[in-house]
Recover the amino acids of this structure.
């Protein structure tokens, strides 16, 4: 509503204001002094303070029910003349607000329950998986000691073992994704030594491999910390390094850390099967997998998770690849917050 | 003389298999089902190495590690933690509390064995 500053009469009102204050008719309010309540109240016009306060509540009685309108007032100038501009919003009944709040809390609780259920379930799944993996190891050892470890046993035992670990990776990915979709993954950023994180991943997951390969780690420049979530960073590199081993055979994958002036650039490189050009644009989409992966197992979730985590930590990621030559992922992260 | 390993694990399915695996690799193995029993067996049997789960009833792996590090007789026995938790902070916490190694579940015995051998290097044989 536009209100004159002297008499405080309503000069102009938009449709919702006309509907609620003037019963839909402009003549009911325009040109008349702003009242301290509309329809159903006997209060006088001089109940409205002069000048208008910065905000006020106006009671209205449409259909006999009391409702409050919250007005915010500001001074405007039209053709160098000053007016009040009052913008009103109906105040939700406290009861309605309470109900909405309850709904929100319930929704939040359901989300949290879902995540904790997923977390509990994936943790519990690991118990039988670990027991199965150990039984397989035991079978293999027994057969070896008894000189009965034929090619047939070797092939099938390794197949079971590989499947157990890919099932385990899937569990990890599903758990991570369930956290992402319920928005429960806000990064807890601290100063992180990326080299240290990669070394501990290498030691934990990529050493003593069955095929005898190892990860090559190279560092250039003066090491500095980056400001990221440590667990996200570990998931990012665990996935990229895991892929580098998974989609290549003979040569060792390499990771290069280059500490530039303003950012850390990390390259994860393999000499594997590569990614066909036509797949590159869709690479970071959930459930999308390269057309040349054939029988190599995967959920198609890994790189989608990687990209989400890189971006939520203010980093960038890109990929270059050539079929049958290899793939290089390039990531960049800024240094600590103060930079 | 075989090295003696105390295996602390509350899941019987895994404990039994892992015990057999270690025995096939010529270790003597005693087992416990929680940190409390583990601490008692460690005092009476003086193992060369302890392999322990972290999340177990009664006394968990972290509390047990703390208990060991305060005990003159037990603080030199290397403890390898075995856990399904993969978070880096979890691993760092275990190492900070004095663990000799951390292996995530599920594991390949080959990897666990490499960690065992490394940890035993610091222990003089009897």
């Amino acid at each position: 509503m536009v209100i004159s500053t002297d008499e405080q009469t309503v000069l102009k009102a938009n449709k919702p204001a006309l509907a609620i204050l003037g019963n839909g008719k402009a003549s009911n309010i325009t040109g008349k002094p702003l009242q301290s309540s509309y329809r159903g109240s006997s209060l006088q016009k001089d109940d409205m303070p002069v000048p208008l306060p910065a905000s006020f509540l106006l009671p209205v009685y449409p259909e006999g029910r009391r409702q409050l309108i919250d007005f915010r007032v500001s001074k405007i100038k039209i053709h160098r003349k000053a007016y009040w501009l009052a913008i009103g919003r109906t105040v939700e009944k406290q009861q309605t607000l309470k109900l909405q709040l309850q709904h929100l809390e319930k929704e939040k609780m359901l989300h949290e329950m879902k995540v904790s259920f997923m977390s509990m379930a994936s943790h519990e799944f690991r118990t039988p998986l670990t027991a199965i993996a150990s039984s397989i190891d035991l079978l293999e050892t027994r057969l070896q000691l008894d000189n009965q470890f034929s090619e047939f046993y070797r092939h099938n035992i390794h197949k079971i073992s590989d499947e157990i670990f890919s099932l385990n990776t899937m569990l990890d990915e599903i758990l991570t994704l369930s956290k992402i979709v319920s928005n429960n993954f806000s990064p807890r950023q601290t100063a992180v030594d990326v080299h240290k994180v990669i070394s501990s991943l290498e030691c934990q997951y990529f050493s003593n491999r069955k095929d005898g390969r190892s990860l090559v780690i190279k560092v250039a420049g003066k090491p500095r910390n980056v400001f990221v979530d440590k667990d996200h960073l570990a998931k990012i590199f665990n996935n990229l390094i895991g892929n580098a081993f998974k989609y290549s055979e003979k040569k060792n994958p390499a990771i290069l850390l280059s500490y530039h002036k303003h950012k850390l650039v990390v390259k994860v490189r393999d000499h594997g099967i590569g990614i066909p050009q036509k797949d590159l644009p869709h690479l970071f989409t959930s459930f999308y997998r390269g057309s040349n992966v054939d029988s190599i197992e995967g959920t198609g979730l890994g790189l989608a998770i990687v990209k989400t985590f890189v971006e939520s930590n203010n980093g960038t990621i890109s990929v270059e690849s050539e079929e049958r030559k290899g793939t290089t992922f390039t990531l960049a992260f800024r240094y600590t917050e103060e930079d | 003389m075989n090295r003696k390993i105390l295996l602390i694990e509350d899941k019987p399915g895994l404990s039994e298999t892992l015990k057999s695996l270690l025995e096939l690799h010529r270790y003597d193995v005693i087992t416990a089902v929680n940190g409390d029993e583990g601490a008692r067996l460690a005092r009476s049997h003086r193992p060369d190495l302890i392999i322990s789960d972290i999340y177990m009833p009664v006394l968990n792996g972290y509390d047990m590690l703390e208990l060991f590090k305060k005990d003159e007789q037990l603080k030199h026995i290397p403890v390898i933690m075995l856990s399904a938790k993969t978070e880096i902070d979890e691993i760092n916490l275990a190492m900070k509390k004095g663990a000799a190694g951390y292996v995530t579940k599920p594991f390949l015995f080959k990897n666990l064995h490499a960690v065992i051998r490394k940890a035993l290097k610091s222990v003089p044989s009897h």
Notes: The two ends of chain A are 48 Å apart (CA to CA). The domain at 2-91 of chain A is CATH 3.30.450 (Beta-Lactamase).
